Amino acid sequence: MKQFFQGKVICITGSSQGIGKTTAITLGGFGAKIILNGRNAEKLQSAYAEIKEMGIDCCQIVADVSIPEQCKLLIEEGIKHYSRLDVLINNAGIASHGLIEESDPSNWEKIVNINTMGTINTTFYALPYLKKTNGSVIIISSMAAKVGVPGHAGYSVSKMALTAYAKSLQIELENVIHCGLVYVGFTANENQKRILKPDGTYGELKERKGLKLSSREDVANQIAKVIEKRKKEITLTTLGKLQHIMLKLAPGIVYAMLRKSHKDYDKMYE
Ligand SMILES: NC(=O)c1ccc[n+]([C@@H]2O[C@H](COP(=O)([O-])OP(=O)(O)OC[C@H]3O[C@@H](n4cnc5c(N)ncnc54)[C@H](OP(=O)(O)O)[C@@H]3O)[C@@H](O)[C@H]2O)c1
Questions:
Q1: Mutate to test the pocket of ligand 1, among 39, 89, 140, 207 (most ligand atoms within 8 A of CB)
Q2: Nearest to 90 by CA among 172, 29, 158
Q3: Looking at the domain assignment, is residue 259 inside a domain?
């Protein structure tokens, strides 16, 4: 793994905390040069200082991936810094909840602009550089991309659309670049993780009790494998793998479980 990543330039969107930051530390630890990104300059500076202190070669670029011009700036500034790009990890994303009838159109726009368009636009500006290095585009998705999750339709829509995007890209640029889709399962969150509420404000994400959570380090190591082995897709966690199989063999069971969890929606977000 170390040899493969040595000297590779990797841009990770949303790497000031959470899975993105841990992935930066993991891949940087393997010798990659990391372009860090986030919207909040202070938070990004603190992650940058911490990662730099570990001896990792990195730079930081403040950019909001929901704004196309800022996706362009992120890639162009990254190229100015390192003169090449080997991997783009589209990780920046927000969680959301809200029933369909309660979610304002502006809310749908917010989540799709970050989770979906953020990935599509950053990839668009990165592709010319990735083609030169026969590089990789990684798309960080979720178990929620495989089913419509009641109470989280906005999030499901934003991630499910990325499956179609990745599958198309895998064929359009086959043998030119690699595109890997990572279906992440329930993962330990940072304390500062927020969730978009149906009223358009951000709230605290409640602790997920009774669930076996992946560690962020585990997720980062799996992302590294997807890049090195040029895998087209991977589903993480036992629950994620079980959901994947059940959707093929006995989808009714998955939908019965979703109905059950929907009954608890009010209790979860009261
Ligand atoms: N945690 C899980 O259980 C889980 C499960 C499945 C999938 N995922 C996916 O994994 C990815 C990371 O999740 P996480 O739990 O690590 O999230 P997180 O802790 O909330 O971190 C999100 C990161 O993205 C940045 N970000 C958010 N919006 C952005 C924007 N518009 N432009 C640029 N950066 C932005 C945030 O920094 P700023 O706020 O400063 O911009 C932060 O660095 C997401 O795509 C998520 O959907 C997570």
A1: 39
A2: 158
A3: no
